[in-house]
Write a structure and sequence with these properties.
Blueprint (H helix, E strand, L loop, with lengths): L1 E6 L2 H20 L5 E6 L10 H6 L7 E2 L7 H19 L3 E5 L3 H12 L4 E4 L11 H12 L2 E4 L2 H9 L10 E4 L3 H10 L5 H5 L8 E4 L3 H4 L2 H17 L3 E5 L1 H8 L2 H8 L4 E4 L3 H9 L3 E4 L2 H9 L4 E3 L7 H5 L3 E3 L4 H13 L16 H13 L1
Helix pairs in contact: 1-7, 1-17, 3-4, 4-5, 10-16
Bound molecules: uridine-diphosphate-N-acetylglucosamine.
Length: about 375
């Protein structure tokens, strides 16, 4: 049985590492063998956005790297499709495995489906219902084209049902597996780089960890300026902020003197993007997490940390319902108010359950893939 896993962006390396480990385990104990090849589109290419994940998570090195890099959506997706088509035709896989909601996911879905290669989608069914997000478009299309849809939550299963998936006429299958990101947190927590705190002169529970990278927050200078003003106020008046800056955000700040000054004149500690093992340490020792990332909202919960999401909607609604996460209007006063309220919230009073499964999503996914191909 041969599968090709298509990855390209930072969160996909983590998800693919979980599935790859499960493939290796299956090959050790299963009656049949799955041959997996990794295809990297090259969407992310900086060392700290790509190579570090392969090194730290022991994800097998990609058999192919398309080296597509940063481009407009159409150019990036189109170039990936051209490269993927050649590889798929050459490799003739039994199944293509796709992760999450990036342009690499979309390119894989369009290319595989037109070559009639079945698709397994890991992290299916998530919806923000905001079609201005490129990720939402990527998810909706990938889910429509997939043969097996692996959902992390009940809400994801429900979202698919509302869109007519599974559909008897098409013959696709929906499986609730839990979240591979929980598997990753469990597997790699043992390897978390605890010296990250000391290296950065930080003490446990003394800082708020912040990340901002979504296009809707960084493409608008007004929005990014509102966010940085709010973070500066929180850092100066409430609790120091440690801002882990994605290259996209760093690029915007570097080209805008006003934003740069705002950041330089505040007590915010700025650190460029870090690897996953450092991130586990940064998250688990923080007092609170502020983010617009999907994955980090859940990682906050895995580490029993409260989270403020710098968006007006989230795909991980169960965290908002349970009180662990709060979304916020993108106005400085609303952001500051929400963060200051969260700093006063006692998380030990909140219920904590297995919203994301039991940390064995990878194993379930590989078993389903093997059954499907067989
Ligand atoms: C992508 C995904 C998003 C995911 C995120 C994780 C899409 C549409 N979005 O967003 O779902 O949450 O990755 O990080 O696929 N850049 C670098 N070096 C890199 C990578 C990116 O400098 O290694 C910079 C470039 O300036 C580029 C910008 O980041 O213009 C955006 O990169 P891109 O891959 O388009 O999207 P992300 O914002 O990273």
């Amino acid at each position: 049985m041969k599968i090709l896993s298509v990855v390209g962006a930072r969160p996909q390396f983590i998800k693919a590492a979980v599935v790859s480990r499960a493939v290796s385990a299956y090959n050790q104990y299963g009656s049949k063998r799955i041959e997996e090849k990794i295809v990297h589109t090259g969407q992310h290419y900086d060392y700290n956005m790509s190579d570090i994940f392969f090194n730290e998570l022991q994800l097998p090195l990609p058999h192919y790297n398309l080296g597509v890099g940063s481009k407009s959506h159409a150019e990036q997706t189109g170039e990936m499709m051209v490269g993927l088509e050649k590889i798929f035709l050459n490799e003739k896989p039994d199944m293509v495995v796709l992760f999450g909601d990036t342009n690499s996911t979309l390119a894989g879905a369009l290319t595989a489906s037109k070559l009639h290669i079945p698709i397994a989608h890991v992290e299916a069914g998530l919806r923000s219902f905001n079609r201005e997000m490129p990720e939402e478009i990527n998810r909706v299309i990938t889910d429509q084209l997939s043969s097996i849809l692996f959902c992390p939550t009940d809400i994801a299963v429900e979202n698919l049902k509302n869109e007519g998936i599974p559909n008897k006429n098409i013959g696709c299958k929906v499986v609730k597996t839990g979240d591979v990101m929980l598997d990753a947190a469990k597997i790699y927590s043992k390897k978390a780089k605890e010296n990250w705190l000391e290296d950065n002169n930080l003490k446990a529970n003394s800082y708020i960890l912040a990340t901002v990278h979504r296009a809707e927050n960084t493409d608008s200078l007004d929005r990014l300026s509102i966010i940085i003003s709010a973070l500066a106020k929180i850092s100066d008046d409430y609790c120091q902020i440690v801002f882990l800056v994605h290259p996209r955000t760093m690029g915007v700040i570097a080209h805008n003197a006003e934003l740069k000054n705002k950041l330089d004149n505040s007590s915010i500690k700025v650190i460029p993007a870090i690897g996953y093992l450092d991130m586990l340490c940064a998250e688990s020792n923080s007092r609170l997490i502020i983010t617009d990332s999907g994955g980090i909202q859940k990682e906050a919960y895995f580490h029993k940390k409260l989270c403020v999401t710098l968006r007006t909607e989230t795909e991980w609604k169960e965290l908002v319902d349970a009180g662990w996460n709060r979304i916020t209007e993108l106005q400085a006063e609303s952001i500051i108010k929400t963060i200051s309220q969260m700093l006063k919230t006692d998380s030990s009073l909140l219920s904590y359950g297995n919203l994301y499964g039991d940390g064995r999503a990878g194993e379930l996914i590989v078993r389903e893939i093997a059954d499907f191909i067989d």
